[in-house]
Each structure stands twice: as C-alpha cells, then as structure tokens.
Amino acid sequence: MTPNELLLWLSARKEGSWRQFRAAVETLDLANSADETEQNASLPLHLRVHFNLERLGHLEFGAAACEKGWRVVPPALALSQHNGHVTGVLCGARTPKLLERIEQAANGLPLERTSYTDCPDVLRLQAPDAETLIVLAGRAGILCQIDAPEALLSRLPSIASLNGFRREALPAFGGQEWEVQQFVIDRKVMKWRTITLQEANASGAQGLFRFTHFQMPRYFLREGRETIALPDAIGKYYILFRRQRRVLKYDRKERSLTLPAIFRPPLLTERALILCSGFPPSISVARGRPTLTYRDIPEEVAGITAEVLRQVLL
Amino acid sequence: MVKAGGMPLQLVAQEKWYEDLRFENIGERLQQGLRLAGFLADHRRVQWQLSGRGLYVLAGHPRASGFVSATRLVLGRSHVVLCVAGLLQQVESVLNEAGCQGYTKLDESQGMPPGWVGLRGVSPEKAISLDAGSDPFYAIKPAPDIEIELDGGVRWHDSVWLAGYPPRIKLFGQATGEVKVLIDGREAWHTEDGCFVVDGYDLSGEHSVYCEGLSCSRSYSIEEPADSWQQWPAYHFGEADICGPLVQLPHETASRRAFTVPMSNLLLLGAEPGQIFRCSSRSGAHWKGFVPFDVVWALPAQPLICDKKSARILRFSDAPLAVSKRHARPALSWCSAILDASRKGLRIANAAPDSTARWIEYKKAARNIWRGRR
After folding, report:
1. B288/A20 CB distance under 8 A
2. Which residue of B has its CA nearest to A56?
C-alpha cells in the first residue's frame, strides 16, 4: 500500500483505533526516508505518517470524538490568498470517484498533484480569485474554508495563555522508571538535558520537563508553584516567550518562514502554515542545526503566527 | 491481564489479534513452550498455549502486518524460518532439497535470541514428501497443494477490496499438469507479473475464483465506499470549532472574510455606533484577521498622538451611518475615536468628495451621541 492508498483506505474506514492505523501503516511500501529533524530523527514510519496526515489536515488523532484513535476529516478545499491568486489545498477524505468529481468540477483548471515523502500526494488548485474555487468546491460537493490559515490562526489562544491545560503533579517515585530531561536554553544552546527524578521534583525546579516511560513522553511546565501538563511545542514556545527569545525568521522576498526544528510549532499553528502552500516544511541544516522552512507564507500569516506564538519575527 | 509462569502480563487486543508480548528470555520460551492463563470479562477461565520446539515457520498474513506463525512452508511464498543452532545443518539440507535459494541468515547480532538462527526470504520451489510416521521437519517440507492467493490492492475489510484497487490473484503450489483458473466462471489468463485476470474481475460486486478439477476456491468482492463524511468539532476554542482545515463559527460570523489593513491604521470602525475593533500590533506591514462587522473606517491606533503629516483616515466602505437607539457603552469609544481623529485634523486618504461628506456625517453622529451621554 502506498500513502495515497492508505488515505483511500482510511477514508473508506472513516474512523478507527490507533493500533489499527499502526498496523495499516506497517503495510506501506515506503523507502526508509527518515525525517532528520531533532524530533523526528528516530521516529518510526507509523509516527511520521501519522504526524504528516494530521498536519496536512487529512485526519485528526486523539481529538474530541476520536480520543483513542483517529477520524478522517470530511473532504475540504482550504483556500489561501496569495499575491494575485488563490491556492486551494485538498484536505481530508479521498476516494477515486471524489477525485474524478473534483477534476470534472475544475472545468479545465489544472488539479496539481505532487508527491511528497511519507504522506499522500499534495493536491492543489490555483485560481485568480476565491470565488472560482468556492464554486468549484460546491460543484464537487466538498466543503470549502476561505482564508484557511488566517481562520485557524485567529482562533487559537496565545501561547502565553495556559488556562486550558491541566494542573498536575510531576510523576514521582511510583515504581516506574522515568527518563527525565529538562529543556535548557543557554545562549545559543537549546536542548534537552538529562536530569534525575529528584532534581525535577526539587522545590525550586522551574522550566519545561520531559518524562519518558516506554518511549511515551509527557511534558510538564513548572512555573512558580504550579505544574502544568501540556504539549511539547506549547511548553517550548512558552519558555521562549518568558525568556524573550526570538526564533521565527521571515524572509519577505522568498515569502518563507524558517525556524529551528527543535521549535516545530504546535499542531494547529503548523497546520495553518502548511495550508498556505499545501506542503510540509522542508528540512535543511544551517550552522549544524536542523531547521524547518515553510514556503509561500504571506507576510500577514507570518504576523499572526508570531502573535499566537508570542514571537517577534527576525 | 494474563500470567505466564506466575509473571503478570498485559494482553492487549487489536482488531483481530492480540498485541505482541515481549519476553526477556524469548529463546527459552520458544524452545520450552509457553502457557498464558487468565480470565475473560465474564470470568471464564482461558488459556493460550505454545508448544515448545526448535523449529518455527513464519509467514505473511492478510490481516496482520509482519510475519506470523504458520504451520508449514507454502510453495512460491516467502517465509522466515527460525531454528535452534543445533538444527541448522539439517534444516538447510531440507531447504536446499525444496529449492530454497538466496535466503539470508540472521544471528544474535541481528536481534535473534541466543542459541537461535533466523533464515529470511525462504521461498520453496519444490514439494517434499514427508517421512513415515511423525516427521520432525514437517514444517519446512512444503506440500504440493495448489493455493489461490489474493493480495495487493486496497483491502477494505475481510474479503472486500476498494473499487479501483482490486486484489492480485495468484496461484501457489506444484501442480502435476496445467491448472485451469476460472474467475467468475470464465477462464482467466496470466498477466506479465504472474497474476490471473478476466474482463470485469476488478468491477464492483461479488467475484469467485477456482481451479478446475481441484478443491481450491476463493471469493472476494469489490465495493465503492460511501461518499459521506461528517464535520465534527475536533477542537474547540472560544466560539470556534476546528476540524482539519475547517473552522466553524456561529452563523452570523461564519460568512465573514479575513480583513486586511495597514499596520498604521489599527483602529477599525463600523457603520453602527459601538462597532469598534482594535487590531493587535504585529510584525509586518499589514494586519490581517477577522473583524466582527463590516469595516467602514480605519484610523491610526492612537488618533490624538499620531503624526498628522503622515497619518491618514482610510475608508473601506461607503456604508451610511446606521444609528440605532440603543447605544451600548462601546459607543462612547466609537465616538471618541471619530472625535479624536477629527480634533487632530486627520485627513482621509485619497479623499473623494463623497468620502468627506460621509466622514462629516459620522462626525456629527459621534458628537450627538457623545453630548447625549454626558
């Protein structure tokens, strides 16, 4: 099975368990194309495919109504405004018949199909205005999200607001063997440093901590007297915000947003960035550090991203 | 939860299988056997037993990923054979007789348990007859039986394939003569890659495959999945529900488009007194986002303290004033923004005569509301 066929299979099944997804991915006929970012260097195939499907807005994992598994998103055209044209990225469920219907509805507008590592083909349409693509989506019987990146980003809470996350005690000595690390920012060094369970639980310990058990990491932010369980990326950007460290670099000429791979944005923020072009970020190494570059990012979208992540663009 | 020799283990059910169990001494367990005991939800006692032996055959399975235990080598298919090191010479001799070539050997350095050897890519070509009585190498002596295999394509579930992605139909085994394969009752022919097809074998519906004169048949069906998926609130922030790229909002705001304004004019006003929106200050030359009303005017963020030489009032719509009798408290902010811009003497960018007239209309309304409130 190829990633395209996997998405067809997932679309036909509509929803399922995590283990069922993993078993299906293991039948994928993919080359061993490891993602070389800090986070993804050692990720197995099923996780790489999972993250890509989620970032591209094809599937939701562990969200409401699919807490213990996955559920396919209804087919939708995500529109993004660029200089002089609008791009529509096809997200969600696919069937051969649906793709046929979209091509017919496109009425001569080319449906651009590009293959990409560890994910289904990126399907895009371009038109001079949004109305053309809205009408096309209506004819094909699929949903349409106008200004998709801005619509997503403008609804996300700022990184500085931690109200939605659970206050929870750090794992202590419960007989389980935890690998404990603290996220360290020291001048240009930003990395996870191994510490002891006692050090993490010490009364004065502050910052972001990673507790790993059986390769399952959990992240905790200790600030003041509070300990908050939160996603990795939100914890990192919160630390950056508190330290007033800037990591987002916007190139106006290239219309690209570059950041260190260790600071991959939170899921929905990254989805918004990816929907600008339809493509996951490219990975390169600059000064010995892996970096992610998101392409075709309008300046306004870079601005909202920076606002959500409480960053100032470099 | 099950127990193996007193050791508690978690047996996790997958869709049709239990998840892998990991043992530290798997080599010993394979050779000596393993018994798992536990209770079902209805308190019935159950056991799983693996009898110990020094030789195992593993093969692919249509409903499991990787290789799982199989009873015997099958002609033409690829297998993994596991054997204790002491049996390797005899095992290789049998495999050689079965025409197995090009398989690779795996040892402890490649993850095999101590004392065991793995042979990967074992693909027999010749059937071997069994010794009289109980043959200790039964598992690696393939029978000549003909088998129909359905693989490839996109299997939706059980024996149902997705339309457009039919199975590949192959024949394994060693026949004494020519085998006639029939699909849907019609004689099938070979493709270049050794698969059997007939016209229509890949169309939606039920299909059957059998070998004439042999008790060997399979069936499969091809179906078109229903083209219906529902949007659901995967994430919820404020009034917005998010699902993939879709952002669902309450009806009155759902149809609004993103609004763009230069960073120099971050104070937005609508036609109705009280419609005021202060954009956040961001990096970049323009602010883009969603404003809960149709914007008519954009003023500098602080009209009174801006530089009047460069600052301008921007007009985005020619909507006339929409005065209602109920002025909420923000109406005062709306009024003071207009009056401040007016006191400062800010000019309208690219002012047309009707723009000036419209601005005067707004200014009068703001002054009236302001006076009425005091």
Report:
1. no
2. B244
